[in-house]
Amino acid sequence: MSDFEIVRSTVVAAEPGGVHALVDDFHRWTAWSPWEGLDPDLGRTYSGPDSGVGAHYAWEGNRKAGAGSMEITGSTPETIDIRLAFLKPFKNTNRVTFTLTPTQVDGAPGTSVEWRMSGERSGFWGVVGRILPMDKLIGKDFEKGLARLKAAAEA
User: Fold this and answer.
1) CB-side exposure of 106: number of CA atoms within 13 Å?
2) CA gap 34, 25 in Å, rounded
3) Domain boundaries, the chain
4) 45: burial class by Cβ within 10 Å (0-12, 13-18, 19+)?
5) Per-residue pLDDT for 126 more than 90?
6) What pTM, to 2 d.p., does this model score?
7) Which one is the CATH code of 2-154: 2.40.150.20, 3.40.30.10, 3.20.20.140, 3.30.530.20?
8) Res. 1: pLDDT tops 50
9) Could you give phi then psi for residue 114, rounded to 5 degrees?
10) Which of 34, 60, 62, 121 could be 141's S-S partner, Cβ–Cβ 3.0 to 4.6 Å?
C-alpha cells in the first residue's frame, strides 16, 4: 500500500458562495463534473439533505462510469469535505476536499478553488500506481472538472 494525493486549482471570476453552491449540492454536479457523459444511462440516487453535511449521491453505470458513492462529511463556506467510495470496477475509498478562498479577479470578487483527493493505493490500484502515477490517471479529469466548474460559476 502507498498513499497518494492529487491536487489541482483554478481561479473563478465568481463569488465564493456561488462556487460553493455548485460543489455542495450533488444535484448540481451534472453541470460541471468531468465524468458526466461517460454513461448516458447512468443511474443516480440522491439521499439525505439536498446539500451540505449528510448529502449523499450514488451512481451505477457502464464499465467507464463504474459504481460508487459520495457523502459530504464537512461543509463550511471555505471547505467542503467528501467521502468518496468506489465500488466498481475496483473498491477504494478516498478523501476529497474542495477549498474555496476569496480573491480578486480583475478588481471583482473571485474564488480560488483547490480540488484535492487523497487516499491509499492498495490491491489493483497499488499495482497500477507503480506503473502509472495516480496524478497522471486522475489529474486531467480534475483539470477538466475545474474548467467546467469555472464556466458554470461564471455563466
Assistant:
1) 3
2) 16
3) 2-154
4) exposed
5) no
6) 0.91
7) 3.30.530.20
8) no
9) -115, 130
10) 34
